[in-house]
Structures are given as structure tokens and as C-alpha cells.
Amino acid sequence: MTNQIKIAVVGVGRWGVHLLRNFLEHPQVMVAAVVDPNPECLAKIKRQYFSNNTTNNHVLFTTEWLEIKQIIDLDAVVIATPASTHYSLIHDALDWGYHVLAEKPLTLDPTECHKLCQLAQKQQRQLMVDHTYLFHPAVERGQTFVQAGELGDLRYGYACRTHLGPVRQDVDALWDLAVHDIAIFNAWLGQQPVSVKASGRVWLHGGHGGQGGISPLSPLSPLSLSKRLADLVWVTLTYANGFQAYIHLCWLNADKQRRLVVVGSRGSLIFDEMSAVSPLTLLHGELEVQGSNYIPINQSQQVLQIEKNEPLKRVCDRFVSCVHNNSPCPVSSGWVGTQLVNILAALTESLNQDGKPVVLNTNLY
């Protein structure tokens, strides 16, 4: 196709392989390169996705990042590598004139995120972050419901994201899991928190180099948190209108949950990925004063039907559109990624101070 864009996919591990699959299936994309430092991983990807596809004989497979510069007319780079490598790779890609789609989080430092956004603007290139949940049909419909006032006066929210592994060796449960629910709360409320706090516990990464040593079952001190990765984190987000959201995060819990709720004066909206019926349910109900009592009234359940569409496919579609039109993606731009990293950094500061509330610095965006 004459309007195809050339893309290099960098990092084809647990998540990068799904990005690669989507871009290979996209009619407006030509995958020009696959980059990964592990030659065995590259060989596996080549066998799995390219062995019977003669139209992809042009693809460069390489362990060397710099080799993508030899590709003529490369348009964009998709980066799905460990977060600690994001800044240098994204900076290079933007500096070389490529559009960038980066796996979340954008980086581990809000100041670095800010610099990347500024560089993207200077280079007139698009920087988009793969916050996949923001493209989930249930999240989009939930945002419409909340912002239309269907729940009445908003009171509070809560979320639970727990599972038994995978346990990360590079970041804690906060950085691994929290960004999803924070992004959803921000989108549904249409605002950013003004202050945050977090507390946690460590069991697995207890002074043994991340090799599975068990630390004492005791509350975390600032010293221990600065050197170990929290397995359990409790988060509180406070917004300017007084709304508070509470998030439970743990990768050491066999009770797998993916559930987020916003509670209002007229009911609760539930986003539950584990539901066998629908991921989005509206529970109507409110309290009426009768004498000295509060009586539940208007109670009903409304299961909302959601279109079946892979959120990651929608992410890839949006990125292709951004590249074609050289226009930003307001839903998940680099600036949105910066906001979320700024919140995570503030939560880390609170975690390291044993739950002390931290006021958000919004000067970065």
C-alpha cells in the first residue's frame, strides 16, 4: 500500500510480542525491523511470525539498536523494553526524527518524561504511550457514564489489582500495577489528583538481590523501602473536589482481581475484567430518609454491553493515525504519560516516608 508506514519494534518480550502481532496484522504498517538484545528471542520471533511469510523477507532482525538507522524512510519506533531503558531509547528515536510509541511507564523519572515531550515537540514528532486501558471499550463507556452525572454526586472510588506473579525484578508492585487504575480514575473523573499517599510491605525482595529471600513480615521502614521492592502497596489518591480513590496492589495474592469501582449518590459503576457476564455493570441505588432511618430505594442492576474489540489493537490503530496525520493523541500522549509518572514518583516518595501524604508538583505539564 502506498500509505503504509515503516515501523521498527524494539523489545519483543512478554508485551512487545503482542505489539508486534498487531502491527504485522495492520494493513497500513510495514514492520521494517525487530530489535531485541536476546538473539534466542529474535530467532523464536522469526520462526513464529515470519517463517511462512515471504512478504516480510525485508525485515531486519538485529540485537543492535543503532542498526535501525540504516533503514531507509523509517517512520516510527515502538519501544517495549524495560522502563529503565526508555529514556535513552526514546530520546535517540525522537532525535533521529522518528515517531515513538512507548510501553508504559514512559520513563521512571517525571523530569525525563518532560524532556522527552519537549523534544518531541521540537522535532515535530508524535510521542504516544501505550496506556492500553484508556482504549478499552468498557473504560471509554464508563468515562461517558461518570462524566454525564449518571452516578449523582461522586463520593469515592476503590480498585483492586492482585495476582500471583509475575514478580518483577526491576520495579515494585506500585510501578508495575498502579498506573492502570490511576489512569482509569483520572480519565473517569477528568482530573488529576492533587495529593497522594502509599504504604506497603515487602516479603520477597528482602536483601537477597531479588532472588526470592523472605524478609520479616513487618511494616516497611523508609530505609527498607529505599532498597527493596514492595510486594503489597496501598494507595490513596485525593482529588481537588475531595474525591478519594483507594487502590490495593499485590503480586503475591492468589485471589486474582481486576476490579475498579466509582461510588456516587445514586449508585456504583463497576469495571470488572474478571466478570463472565460483562466488564461494566451499573448498580443503581440510593438512600432515602424515613424518619430517623435511611432506607435503600431505586435498587437495580444494569449490565452494560460492551463491543468486543482488543484494546491493544485500538492503541496501534490510533498510533498509526497519529503518524499519518502527525497529530497528537490526547488520550495517551507523552504529556499524559508524564502526568502518570509524576503521580507514581510522588507515591514512591510517600512509600519511602511510611505513608506521608505528598502534594503533586504539576509544573512538569
Radius of gyration of CA atoms, rounded to a whole number? 22 Å
In this structure, how is the largest beta sheet organized? 9 strands, mixed
Order of helices and strands: EHEHEEHEHEHEHEHEEEEEEHHE
- Give the strand tally: 15
Mean pLDDT: 91
The parts where pLDDT drops under 50 for at least 5 residues are 207-225
Shape: globular
Secondary structure class reads: alpha/beta
What is the helix fraction of residues, given as a range? 25-40%
Biggest sheet: strands side by side, in what order? 14-13-12-11-7-10-9-8-15
Textual characterization of the structure:
- With 365 residues, this protein is α/β, with parallel strands linked by helices.
- The chain is 31% helix and 30% strand.
- It has nine helices and 15 strands.
- The protein has a nine-stranded mixed beta sheet with strand order 14-13-12-11-7-10-9-8-15.
- Strand 12 (267-272) and strand 13 form a beta hairpin.
- The longest helix has 19 residues, at 334-352.
- It is globular, with a radius of gyration of 22 Å.
- The two termini are 38 Å apart.
- Mean pLDDT is 91; it is low at 207-225.
